[in-house]
Write a structure and sequence with these properties.
Strand content: under 5%
Shape: globular
Order of helices and strands: HHHHHHHH
Structural class: mainly alpha
Helix content: over 70%
Number of helices: 8
Largest sheet: none
Radius of gyration: 18 Å
Number of strands: 0
Distance between the termini: 43 Å
Length: 187
Amino acid sequence: MDRAQQAQALMAALSGGERAALARLIVLYGPGVQRYAAQNLRQPQEAEDVAQEVFLRVWAQAGRYDPARGAVSTWIYRIAVNLCIDRNRRGGLRRFLGLEAAPEVPDEAPGPEAVTDARQRLARIRSVLTELPDRQRQAIVLRAAGGLSTGEIAAILGISPGAAEQLLVRARATLRARTEPTAGETQ
């Protein structure tokens, strides 16, 4: 049984009230959902909360899932996309009103050269990700963090597979162009 079939069976069991099915869905999709949220939230430390909220909604709304409308992964990641959008909107309002505490300074203690280089590259990638248009960022993070296919990404974003592929192509090209070392830099 492949992952999609397993997920369908788990959703059917969850709709019937089987709690263990939720735990198995979390094992299947939880890490990817959390990685997706961490990359799409302005406050990445909220990713675990968002992932928990996703699966609370999966539990509460399991009976509303319709396999004819898409794969389980599509349904779960659509919930994650919506929650991330909502969380970012609320956070922006809180920051505007001055209700949010100052962000913590990340620990950038110097280490071996390889660790430093990796951190610099990761910081460049994260910076470029934040500069991508929303749809491109969502598509590339769904692919990278969720391991989703182009068809699944298209269904989650409500676009055609061809449009999803174009978003991925553009996002990858931008990431490559802005993160590859220039002639004066070393890797």
